[in-house]
Write a structure and sequence with these properties.
The complex is a heterodimer. Chain A is mostly beta strands. Chain A has no helices and 11 strands. By secondary structure, chain B is mostly beta strands. In chain B, β7 and β8 form a beta hairpin. Chain B starts with a strand and ends with a strand. Classes of the chains: A mainly beta, B mainly beta.
Amino acid sequence: GEDVEQSLFLSVREGDSSVINCTYTDSSSTYLYWYKQEPGAGLQLLTYIFSNMDMKQDQRLTVLLNKKDKHLSLRIADTQTGDSAIYFCAASPGNTPLVFGKGTRLSVIA
Amino acid sequence: DADVTQTPRNRITKTGKRIMLECSQTKGHDRMYWYRQDPGLGLRLIYYSFDVKDINKGEISDGYSVSRQAQAKFSLSLESAIPNQTALYFCASQPGQGAEEQYFGPGTRLTVT
């Protein structure tokens, strides 16, 4: 089945760009997602990308997809302290539930 | 009002007790999910339901059961709680497949002593 991997921690300075990386194993995954979890809250969808796209940009967020290498990244420009959270990568391998990575904890240093 | 609600938000129970966690959604979604979150392990799927008559086991269903009482309600039961079921539990709903967003509840923090 699908397996999604991401690094567990990332620390950046306020104003810098953050890049969170993710790899997945099932090439049939049609949609790939980034969810954000703030302290004490559930997950909220940040953005998603369809597998036939290479890039998607939404304000400060840029998602890059390398389908050949099964690699997904989320770039947050001008990272702010409010961006401190856990970011989850998730893949959708067909009509089955999402498979989530373990989450990357982003710490933003003022 | 929140789209996905979970009750209780916090629960402390003793080993061997039966407990139920409840989830309701107001969005009319067909699909509902139960996950548990443990530090360093991310979200793991316990059970899911694609409609009222459909129940499926997830990655870690042992020790849990579910009931889909109506389209809006999906409850999770621990028949005989054990300490390693101490975790944060999330319910989510989703309209259907494809790019549809999963909407998560606020979570239930369960402690089994």
